[in-house]
Each structure stands twice: as C-alpha cells, then as structure tokens.
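REQUEST FORM: STRUCTURE PREDICTION
Request ID: SP-0412
Submitted by: Lab K.M.
Chain count: 1
Length (residues): 499
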Amino acid sequence: MTSSAPLSASTPTWNARLWGVLLTVSLVIGLDALDVSMVGVALPSIQADLGLSTSALQWIVSGYVLSYGGLLLLGGRAADLLGRRRVFLTAVAVFAAASVLGGLVDDGALLIATRILKGMAAAFTAPAALSIITTTFAEGPARNKALGVFSVFGASGYSAGLVLSGLLTQVGWRWTFFLPVPVAVIAWIAANRLLPKDGPRASGGYDIPGAITSVGAMLLLVYTVVEAPEAGWAAPSTLIQFAIAAVLLAAFLVIERRSAHPLVRLGILRSGSLARANLGISVFFGGYIGFQFVVMLYFQSVLQWSALQTALGFLPAAVIVAFGSPRMDPLIERVGTARTIAGGVLAHLVGYVLFLVIDRDAPYAVGVLPSMILLGIGFTLAFASFNIQATAGIPDHEQGLAGGLLNTSTQVGGAIGLAIVTAVLTAGGEGKTGPDALLAGFTPALLTITVLSAIGLLIGLSGVLGRRKAEQSADASAQKPAVKSAEESSEERELALVD
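STATUS: Completed
RESULT:
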C-alpha cells in the first residue's frame, strides 16, 4: 500500500523508504540510458539475421533517439499535470512491454516500431524520475547527494550497455532486448509500493498546439540531421526540411508566448544556470556520442576486434563513472557546479586530443586507455553537476519541465553530434578500404569532435567567469550597505544554490 504522506529528505539521515524511492527511480533512468547504447554492438548481428539495409539499420538507433528526444518536453509537462507517480508507472510498464516485443519480432519494420515505442516510454520516465527526486529531496546537500546517485545510474547505465551488449551478442542479439524486461518489472513493483501518492498537481490545461509544434520541430530537426549525410546537406529535401523545422520552432515560440497554459513557460529560460546546463550538456553529449561511434569503428574495422572485445574496450570509463559519481557530492559542494562542469569538459577535450595521434599498432594501454580514463573522469565530474545546475532554483511545479528540457538537450545534442561526425567521417573515408586507409579517414571526424568539445569548454568556462563576477559584485555590495531589490536577492540565492 502506498502512503500519501510526502517523504522528507531535509536531514542528512535517510530512512530505508527514502533510499528505496531514490534507487527505484535511478534504476529506471539507468535502463533508459542502457537501452540507448546496448543495441549498438549488436547491430551487425541484427542486420545479418533480419536482412536489413544500412539505411534501415540506423533507424534501430535513430528511432529510439528521435522519439526519446522529441517527446521529452511533453513527458515533463505530463508529469507536472497528471502526477509524477502515475506517469512513471505507466511509462515503465510500456517500456517493459516494448522490450518483450522487440526481442520476439522477426521483421525489421516491427523491430524499429518497438524501438520508437521504447523511446516514447523513456521520454516520460526520465523527466518524471528527475522531478520525483527534486521534489522529494530538499534543495542543497540532500538533493545534491540524491542527484549524484541518480547520475551514476544514468551515466554508468550508458557505459554498462556497451559491455553487456558485447556479452549478450555472443549468445544472441535478442537478449539485448530481453535483458531490460525483468529489471523494469522489478522497478515497477518497487515504485508501486514505495512512491508516495501524487500530491497537488500543477494547475492549467494542456497546450496541444504547443505540443504538436514542439514535438514536430524536434522530430523533424533530428530526422533531417540523421538523414542529411546520405541525402546531402545542400540537397533540396534537406534544406526544405530544415526550413520547415525552423518554421515549426518559430510557431512554437509564438504559441508559448500567447498560450494561457504554455507547454514551456519561456520565462524559465531566463535562469542562467538552466540555460547553461542545457546548452552545455547538448555539446558535451554530442561530442561523446560521436567519439564513441568512431572508437567502435576503430576497434572493429581497424583492429578487427570481436563484439565482446569492443565492449570491454569501454570498460575502464564505465568503472570510473560507477565508483566516482556517488562520491562527487562533497566536491560539488566545495567548488560548485560551474567548476566541476568545466573540469569534466576539459577532461573529455584532452582525451579526444590524445586520440588524434592513434595508430594501428598502438597498444591499448598506450593509445586508448588514457582517453578512456579521461572520459570516465569527465562524465563523473560533469554529469551530476549538469543535473544540479539545471534544477537549482526551479519551483517544484516546474521540476518536470526542467527535467524534460535537460533530457531533451542531452538526446537532441547526442543525435545532432552523431549526425555531424558521421557526415564528416563518410566524406573523409569515401572510397577508402583497408585498416590503414580507414584509420586515416577517422582524422577529420576526430578533429570535429575535438572542436565540439572545445566549444563545450567555452560554455563551461562562461559559468566559472560568471560566478567570479557575481562574487566580486557581492563583495562590492557588502562594502556599500544598500537595500537590495527582490531581483538582486533572487540572483544571489540562485548563485548560492548552483555554485
């Protein structure tokens, strides 16, 4: 039986029920992340078994990312309006059912359809899970600690998916679809028992025109970027689709400004911390997804590694994330999210630069391992900090929206980053065969990834510089007593919460 009394996490001591809530929602977000990556190593086996073309094969990944990224804003709003517990339970059930279907089908189109359905379910679980945490745990040390645990499940879930995929593909690719089922069922049972009943919900109705235009813009934008490498970036169809996506986005902004019950209250974007977190994580994750794609090709096409060897090549990064993320709370409390994010992005940038000089004969311990270590350190430093930065200072009734925005930025950034890197890789490797020729073709793609990471570092450093200026301004104000405006006080509170 579910208690209707709200849980409290304002004190350092958490009871078993509170831990149960945190671990349950974190487990599901780990499943969402795991499902993004776990199918990657299994793609060649799926292609051989079902006879799919390369263009059809990409939709096993793209279908999930498109529906996940495109519907996250709607998922966040649904969590605020319908109730976080109700949305979470329903979406987890759909996710489990789609996983079963994906493992049973023998038709490529049906398999892609199940992936789209799973992405839709994940789009509702992710913001609901994040808002459950941010409304259960008091802002400050308690919430930061909870988000650290939440982030380790998400980050390590993605990394673990690569390793598990290699192991399961040795047995059969269908097991990569069946594995999430028992975990999702256990999570659903635990959530049904542990999550408190939904309290007061956000007032207002549904912004249907806003939902249609925002989802349409996101889906078309990501679809166009994914398809552009094959169709051509300057092809009429590509340009028309980009134009339509821009028109839909402009229409969405106009609708949100005029709607009585907007899907996205545009004023929420005035939060500097939220805006930086969304922009930063989109570039951060986009660079990582592109790098992962290139490294997987390096392992399999250049080094001729098996699926299992390829998966194990990413293991060091996964181990660092798993052990490091839960221990990040004291560091974040001491130095602030701006500095930890900048440090994490810098670690990724150095890792990408080191990989630029990779050659066919470089031992793993010398050529690959340093980059993997830096990737693990970077994720550990930045991932939890992005979540804290994006949700600090946001009222409870908009936590679902803030979570949806952050996850949308992550998925859309990943899809766009991968599409850009793939386009550069295709152009650089056109007509080239053999391991050495393929390796030479990777250089332009790796340079692109490095540039993306450098842009991310500039975004991260802007947060550090902004914090310094705010501290200097606060010191100057302290020397000249004056009555502070409500806006100034709000800005200082946000600074204290975020950094």
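NOTES: The two ends are 39 Å apart (CA to CA).
Reviewed by: T.R.
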